[in-house]
Amino acid sequence: MVSTIAESTGCHSNEFDPTGVEYGSVGRNSFRPTIHDMEVAMPYTALSRGRWSQPYRIYSVTAVTNGRRPVFKNFRCARLLIAQIRTLHDVGAVNSLVWVLMPDHLHWLFELRDQTDLAQVMKLLKARSAREINRHLGGKGPLWQRAFYDRAVRRSDDLRVLGRYIVDNPLRAGLVTEIGQYSHWDCVWIGDEGGVCGL
Fold first, then answer.
1. Residue 3 maps to a domain
2. How many domains does the chain have?
């Protein structure tokens, strides 16, 4: 167990957060509520105050579909989003560490590179995935909520704990009984020192 507890700056959660991360939001499209609070919309002006982005900083990001629609229950839609995550990694915008795609939201841990800022990374991810998924479904309109939630990680020794916490989301949600049964996740530490995320 991590000995440090996250310092909250207005973020409320009903569950224990073992991540030991620093709360702070970056980019004009970010906000602070937990995944449980995301259905309550915040005014856009509240999203842009006090935001900053730092290259080579590690961020934990959550993005939620518009109206919490379970778009990613559709296997093809899930894979279209995953392709965009991989593209952002491959072009050097981020160094992707861990992600898990739930039916109506994405959790993603990555190191921001120096080519762009956090808001731009999320804008690219959302826009490109929305275009591809809408094309696949024959739909139109917003796929994602306008904002996203993020936390800047305070210490590198917390990364594997945070990674495991992210990967375990389908287990906690009761979608599967073993993480190997779930198709939509990845972790750079698979197999390192004893299993998924080294834990």
1. no
2. 1
When comparing pLDDT for 100 and 43, which is higher?
Answer: 100
Q: Are residues 152 and 111 in contact, defined by beta-carbon separation less than 8 angstroms?
A: no
Question: What is the C-alpha separation between 92 and 112, in angstroms, rounded?
Answer: 9
Distance, CA of 143 to chain centre: 15
Q: How far is CA 44 from CA 28, 47, 48, 51, 85, in A?
A: 8, 5, 7, 13, 25
Using left for φ > 0, alpha for ψ between -120 and 50, and beta otherwise, residue 161 falls in: alpha
pLDDT digits (tens, 9 = 90+) for 141-172: 999 999 999 999 986 668 988 999 999 999 99
Q: Where are the alpha helices (DSSP H) in the chain?
A: 44-47, 75-90, 118-137, 159-167, 169-172
Examine the pLDDT at 45 and tell me if it is beyond 60.
no
List of E strands, the chain = 22-23, 30-31, 58-64, 94-101, 105-112, 148-152, 185-187
Query: Is there a domain that residue 2 lies in?
Result: no
Asked if residue 148 is part of any domain, the answer here is yes
